[in-house]
Amino acid sequence: MALTPEDVKQFAHLARLGIDQRELEPLAADLSKLLVLVEHLQAVDTTGVEPMAHPASASLQLRDDVVTETDQRETLQAPAPHTQDGYFLVPRVIE
C-alpha cells in the first residue's frame, strides 16, 4: 500500500500534528515502507504457534530475604572526613 503526501497530510491533520510541506514526500515514502513490512508480517502463517506469555501475567520469582554479606560499615566509612552514628556527615547546602 503506497501512501501519498496528501494521505500523510490528512493523517497529520487528524492527529493534530504540524508537518512541514517539504517533509510530506519523504514521510509518505517511509510510512509506505512500514506498511509493506506490516503486510509481510500479516502474510506469515502462524497456525499452530502458541502465543507468548504476556509480562503482566508473569509471576515474580522472589528470593528469601536473608543477609548474604557481612557488615562493612566501619571499613567503608573509614576514609570519610566526618561520620556520626553510622551516617556520613556532609556540609549543609540549603539554608
What can you see in these coordinates?
With 95 residues, this protein is mainly alpha-helical. The protein has helices at 5-14, 24-43, 73-77, and strands at residues 83-84, 87-88. A hairpin with a 2-residue loop joins strand 1 (83-84) and strand 2. Helix 1 (5-14) crosses helix 2. It has a domain at 5-43. The chain is 37% helix and 4% strand. The protein is built from three helices and two strands; from the N terminus they run H-H-H-E-E.
- Overall mean pLDDT: 91
User: How would you describe the shape?
Assistant: elongated
Q: Unreliable stretches, pLDDT < 50, 5 or more residues?
A: none
- Give the ordered list of helices and strands: HHHEE
The helix count comes to 3
Strand fraction equals: under 5%
* Computed structural class: mainly alpha
In short:
It contains three helices and two strands. With 95 residues, the chain is mainly alpha-helical.
List the helices and strands and how they pair.
Layout: H1 5-14, H2 24-43, H3 73-77, E1 83-84, E2 87-88
Q: Which key features would you list for this structure?
A:
two-stranded antiparallel ribbon, mainly alpha, 4% strand, 95 residues
